[in-house]
Amino acid sequence: MTENRLTLDRLRQSPLPMPEEGSKEQRGTVLVVGGSVEVPGAVLLAGVAALRTGAGRLRIATVERNAANLAIAVPEARVIGLAETGDGALDPAGARTRLPDLAESCQSVLVGPGLSAGEAAEALSRAILAAETRATLVLDAGVIAGLGRQAEAVRSCRGGAVITPHAGEMARLLDIERGAVEADPLAAARRAADFLGCVVIMKGAKSWIVDPGGAAWLYDGGGVGLATSGSGDVLSGIIAGLLARGAGTTKAALWGVYLHGQAGRRLAERVGPVGFLAREIADEVPAILREA
Fold first, then answer.
1. pLDDT tens, 89-129?
2. Rounded to whole angstroms, how far apart are CA atoms 163 and 276?
3. What is the pLDDT of residues 195-210, one digit of tens each?
4. I need a labelling partner for 23 at 20 to 30 A (CA). Which of 43, 89, 92, 118 fits?
């Protein structure tokens, strides 16, 4: 097992697919699933980030009550309204009937932005895992805590998977104390990667990226300003966009963490070390990709 510091020089040794011409279909389709009546913007942040990273097409599946407004806010996306529960969350039963068809023609599917951990989120992740899509999955936010009861399904994903927990989500996933995760985030990430057979991005002031074989990369260049509401949704959207373009799970995770971190650095220099908004992060990505 090896540890590497994540730098641009290292990433340049594993370049991203960079089509010079062709249709949007060649850069892939991303499906973002999530949101609720109370948290409508998380899927917006993630979806826009996927497009800013170069994905060709975007679909967003969210609660029906938010769909029309979201379609206006993100005119580049096809927005699908799904049935919702009485408290304004996605109804897993309704999603189960729609998600397989929606995911079928997508290269990546991001599930979780704007979802709270609980039975509904777990049922939703079960629905997408049961769909047996060929798309690569990014599992984020509210769906992470319940993955421990779905480990075999995650391991069996035909397209592979990436998860993006912070310390609290990792603690719930592994059923350990948050303090234990914070004391040794690399060990927690390696345990989760082995358990689920997927790539793990252990988010924090220093982020660890670990593949299922235990190889680990450390990124510590983002800055404190990235610890802001919605920042994680942008990160997961960036990764989904890279996957749609054809990057493998490890490559998408490494480049995604770097792009997110470098965007934070640029905003810190221009706006200030704190106070920039998550919605501003994705706008920095195209220039960073051009210069990389």
1. 899 888 888 888 898 889 999 999 999 888 888 888 888 88
2. 25
3. 999 999 999 989 999 9
4. 43
Exposed, middle or buried, 224 (CB in 10 Å: 0-12/13-18/19+)? exposed
Mean local confidence (pLDDT), 271-288: 97
Q: How far apart are CA 117 and CA 47, in angstroms?
A: 21
What CA–CA distance (Å, rounded) separates 145 from 25?
Answer: 33
CATH architecture under which domain 3-11+24-285 falls: 3-Layer(aba) Sandwich (3.40)
pTM for the whole thing? 0.95
Q: How many CA within 13 A on the CB side of residue 168?
A: 6
For residue 27, give the nearest of 59, 51, 60, 46 by alpha carbon: 51
Q: Residues 261-273: what's their mean pLDDT?
A: 96
Q: 108: which strand partners?
A: 30, 136
